[in-house]
What does this fold into?
Amino acid sequence: MMAKRYAVLWFPFLLTDWYTKHNPSLADIPFVFAMLVRGRMCVSAVNPLAAQLGVVPNMVVADARAAIPRLEVLPDKPLRKEKLLQGIGLWCMRYTPIVSVDTGDFLILDITGCAHLWGGEKVYLQEIHRQIRQKAYEVRIGIASTIGAAWAIARYGQQDTIIPDNAQDQVLSTMPIACLRLESNLLERLKKLGFRTVASVTQIPSQVLKRRFGEDLTKRMAQALGKEEEYIAPLKPVIPYAERVPCLEPIKTAKGIEIAIEKLLVMLCKRLMNEGKGLRKAKLSCYRVDGKVRYIEIGTNRASAHAKHLLGLFKQKIPTIAPGLGIEIFVLEALKVEDAIPVQELLWNGEESLDNDALAELLDRFKGRDAACCINRFLPDEHYWPERSIRLAISLTEKRTTAWRTDRPRPTRLLNPPHPIEVSAPIPDYPPMLFRYKGEVHLIKKADGPERIEREWWIEQGEHRDYYYVEDNQGRRYWLFRLGHYQGDRSPNWYLHGFFA
Amino acid sequence: MSWRKEIAMRTSVEKSMLIADLQQQILQWQGFKQIDKKDYKVGLGALENAFPGHVFPLGTLHEFISENKEEEAASSGFIGRLLSFLMQRGGVCLWINNSDQLFAPSIKSFGIDPDRIIFVQMKKQKDILWALEEGLKCEGIRVVIAEVQDIDFVQSRRLQLAVERSKVTGFVLRLQPRFFGATTCAARWHIRPLPSYVQGNIPGVGFPEWEVELLKVRNGNPSRWQVGWRQNQLQAKRLALTSDHVYQDKRKVG
It folds into this structure.
């Protein structure tokens, strides 16, 4: 896997830059935005001139005015900054598909595998910087292998910096402790105790830190140093495999729908095949003229990028689409995509095996026709209890781990559940002389047994079974059992459990 | 007088040759293709003689009739034996039914690994027939077995067309069929359990024995045997054809 790289963009004067851009007359005047916070007007954003004069966010406006009489105060609106940041974030998607907005004035870009398209990270960084500067925003960018390190260098670095892969430990050690994205309370406590740089904390064992300062500090440290994975929520979730076909005229016929699906599948499968993937689950959404949407879904037993086969699966479901007045847009999404085993012409391809495309596709068609149908392969399991002596295989190619037992007679056909029968049998443990099943009396000529099979007490409670393999006077062979011991006060429970070949 | 005898002899030889030739031609006209014998021995020994050219027909449909559960179990066992021969060279087998009654571990005693069989359960008879047809069309499979109650001529013809292209063998296991109309199946079997074979006076149940009856064989001779396997050795004894097992459509009354 490719090493992750992240870029963090910090906009120190986001709101004021935006306002200055639209009102150039304010460029030489110190001004701030203010918002009502708990009944007081507080500064929410400052421009560079005001910042130079000592105004900081969260300051009470009255204090700022007292210090700088010529300070211009403009009303702020809630969520204005967030909207602006999101807009810039969407614009940044030209550099990478994964962009996330962080609290404060930060954008996090996952630039893994993107920088080389611009000719290296240095050029990439310069390009982003230049473009954003052109739009009149102040920006500082940090690039590193972890979000934490990139954030730290963007926020507390002196200029745009690229931290090479695995060098974040050295760079971070000299940085102030605040670069770890900690809560202000915790930060205050750390400062009071004399922890000023990251290096001063890293020397202390993490167990001690956890005990004294809680989980947050160690977690942020681990994230910044790349010892713990950090996830970001992209602005636009990436739907990796989706295709759409708009139609000039609304489509109403089954044949038309089929053609649309085929077109979609050819496009999707081409992409899947190039990336060595196959789909396991796909959804087709049909947007109708009247605004309603119809869905059909298909699933496969193993990853497939075979357009013809997938079309066959969709074809089975086309009759369930109600086209109404017609369908305008078809959208095909691959909901579940897996790495496909590359199609390879094997030398021994003539021999049919369980690992076979034609078979997998056939079973997919079964599932498509009757969604409730069960497709099972049985493998031996190490239990004596007949019902538990087999288990379902997880996949078509799963190998058995134990051998099939042949030392004991087992019936070809098993009755599930066992059928109660009436039996006359001499006690204590002789096989029955005759039994009555479905109104017919069977006289037993030959018998084997008993074979006692206990219930496994760690799985379930209950009585054991004593099995007899019997043959009646006409040569028909049965598997009978008696549940539990003979007891004086009740008639024994006899059951028929199967038919032998 | 001698020349008459000579002519008679000559004509009888000519006649038999002519008849053999005609039979061959009839078989060809009936669409029967002679297959190379060596490749298609399925290990049924004497039973194979009932089939045209003494070859067990593969790549076709076979029908197994059973009137009750016991016969169904016997048929399943016999099919298990057949599978062990048919799948010696690898391959996958598909078993389609509507309830899970075949007990997989038992098949092992007939010489086939149960994990090579894929069991498919479908609710409706229509779906089972459809699945059978799809399975027969699929070349990645060696044998498809389907349990259906009835199959009519039109349905069987569809299956036959599928089989002719793909050369997959299909077994149709029919429990308590309601009618016995003509089908395109190459053979119609009926297997009944017989008292097991016990050597000497050893107590207990011995090796299973079956009465295998070929009710119908396309281009072949219907016949009846007593069949059993002892230590994987086939023991077949020919029985006389009886007329008491006459299959007729059970009339619907009322």
Q: What stands out?
A: Residues 254-274 of chain A form the longest helix (21 residues). Chain A has three domains: 1-238, 242-369, 413-499.
